[in-house]
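Thread: adenosine-5'-triphosphate complex, take 2
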Amino acid sequence: MADAEGVKHRQGDSPIEVRFRGGGFAPRSRRWVGVAVFVVLIALIQWGTETGWISALTLPKPTDVLATFGQLWESGLLFKHLQPSLTRLVIGAALGASTGIAIGVLIGLFSYVRAGLVPLVAAIFPIPKIALLPLFVIWFGIDEGSKYALIAFGTFTPTVVATYGAVDNVDRSLIRMGQSFGLSWSSIVRKIVLPGAMPGILSGLRISLAIAIILLVAAEMLGAEYGIGAYILEAGSLYDLERLFAGVVILSLLGVLVSAIIGLIERRLLGWRI
Amino acid sequence: MDIRLDAISHHYGATEVLRNISLDIPAGEIVCLVGPSGCGKSTLLRFIGGLERPESGRVLQLGTPPEGSLNPLTFVFQDFALLPWRTVKGNISLVLEDHGIRGARAKAIIDDVLNRTRLADFADALPKQLSGGMKQRVAIARALAVNPAVMLMDEPLSALDAQTRELLLDDLVSLWTRQPFTAVYVTHNLAEAVRLGHTIVVLSRRPGRIREIVSIETPIDQRRAGDPVCQQKHDLLWELMREEARAADEELIDG
Ligand SMILES: Nc1ncnc2c1ncn2[C@@H]1O[C@H](COP(=O)(O)OP(=O)(O)OP(=O)(O)O)[C@@H](O)[C@H]1O
Ligand SMILES: [Mg+2]
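Output below.
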């Protein structure tokens, strides 16, 4: 179609407007699209379950899930579950991410540390951390210790990999500039390497923190009376789909929240990017 | 403070880059380095600035740097090398902070160098908001802030368009006339060399040796386009460079 038109214009020698082919590749804030996708999806499921097109055993009715959620809220059970989960998540992720960033920076800066630790990290990375839960229980006890450890350990490896990659990618000419002005080693690290690595570290954190939420549920599989994970597992073993989904929705909201917080930090810290 | 290069030679692996370069860079003068691509100009500049060490030969400082010079040997880079996350002001204070200069003292220096480079209105802008010519002016302001004894400039204007280059060249000339500084100025552009250089050192093709040293007596602020002396020097340099380029080509053909 377009070709035929182009040919016609060329024969007629009339000017044709240059086809626009720029644009794109520059993410812009279009938040309503995300909301719209959720709304359409949920509306579709609601319609399906009400008409019986989706059987009650396949998916619960969104309105029922909402009602369960409301009960959770009113009975105060929501916060009883949310509070220990959030504590575990914050403490575990903070431990894992901060040691991960520290070790990652060290790997990025020192050849010996790199030679020593990169193979180790590569060896640890693919281990499903959930498989190590019994080990953590022995090491850190069945209480909170093992849960913090599991989340921290799971957050640690992706953070290390993202961080040393980010440090490697810092523009060498900027470091050279720092040296040429006689800046001290610590100034170069604090004022050039770390800010330069920040975009990579933050996008690594997005992934690490999502993994932390996944591991939160795994950690609460063992000996947790309260917690979103415990709630989901209990509902799952009873095939109580409404409660199961209410729990899953909480996890999703947690993911969205974490992602929004990182987005906020990025906007604050990385406004300098082109 | 003068700089003396004493029989500098260097290899990168099997490639001989520089051979036996001896040169004096007198205080208060601009020495331009020209030569075919890959002859080792940038390498020589890194040796002078102490960013790398030559295999043999030495770079010597003669005399002490002037009182108050924070960073005697200061680079101006071709790609500006500004920290994108710091404002214009922040990029300049970066090089002062390590010397313990903060607050009012830093502000006085920053204001002074920004005025000298006509950037006073852009103190709070981020590098992404500046044009290429302005970025290079910020880099020059940053270099001036540490009160260098010798400025080492590696093709500082070659990333810029012809008009901006012309304007910045005028800026450099007026900076120098107001307060003569010492500089080693690497360039591909003979017009720049003839405009700025008290002496122009022509390097041969790789391995770089000193092929010829041309001096221009005309005071820098009196040089104009079409000035017969400058034109004659320009032609002389052009001839030398062309021979080198031709010889380099023939070498390639002969294998
Ligand atoms: N770090 C390095 N390792 C290995 N070889 C290098 C290195 N730096 C430069 N070289 C080589 O040394 C030679 C001289 O390089 P240099 O950058 O000094 O040339 P130049 O005269 O500045 O060239 P141009 O005019 O293109 O900037 C080149 O052949 C280059 O490939
Ligand atoms: Mg070069």
